[in-house]
């Protein structure tokens, strides 16, 4: 039985912090695999202007040298307005029935789930396991205890992690730097930096 983490994001572009986070979580939680799951560019809650093919190609370049990391296009291939995390996790559990599947997320998302803001949130919590990464200013234990959705399922399914180092360089920041003629060369994998330059991505 493999222990697998599902790590979703827009990855627009993937950054060194994404990779560092995945590596840290894999090491601390003894994961055999981390599945990088880029979201659909049709999602209503995200404004993604980069073509799927570019995000996918950069992701492949970024993870090529780490055998623990796998890219999966499941959500990218869905109609964005019809896909929810509950459905995604159900899909991966069905695809890997003998494995231990965990959803990797930040504490900010834990707050939203606990507040009932996610579609099928209670069923999502009831049927899955979670690796939750600390975010500045969020008390994860308090978040769980204050939410009936979360505390009623607090049976060990929430693995809370403080990575020990706050690294908050975002994809948004990198896109803005490129757009303004900045130089974010060392904030993302060198192969992705070269790809962005070659394809003139994120330019005004």
TrEMBL record:
Q: What Gene3D superfamilies is this protein classified in?
A: HUPs
Query: Keywords in UniProt for this one?
Result: ATP-binding, NAD, Nucleotide-binding, Nucleotidyltransferase, Pyridine nucleotide biosynthesis, Transferase
SUPFAM superfamilies, alphabetized: Nucleotidylyl transferase
Alphabetized InterPro entries for the sequence:
Cyt_trans-like, NadD/NMNAT, Rossmann-like_a/b/a_fold
| Catalytic function, reaction form | nicotinate beta-D-ribonucleotide + ATP + H(+) = deamido-NAD(+) + diphosphate
Q: What is its EC number?
A: 2.7.7.18
GO molecular function terms attached to this record: nicotinate-nucleotide adenylyltransferase activity
Q: Domain Cytidyltransferase-like spans what residues? A: 6-176
HAMAP family noted in UniProt? NaMN_adenylyltr
In the record, the note on similarity to other proteins reads: Belongs to the NadD family.
Q: What does this protein do?
A: Catalyzes the reversible adenylation of nicotinate mononucleotide (NaMN) to nicotinic acid adenine dinucleotide (NaAD).
Q: Which PANTHER family match?
A: NICOTINATE-NUCLEOTIDE ADENYLYLTRANSFERASE-RELATED, PHOSPHOPANTETHEINE ADENYLYLTRANSFERASE
- What protein am I looking at? Probable nicotinate-nucleotide adenylyltransferase
> Which lineage?
Bacteria, Bacillati, Bacillota, Bacilli, Bacillales
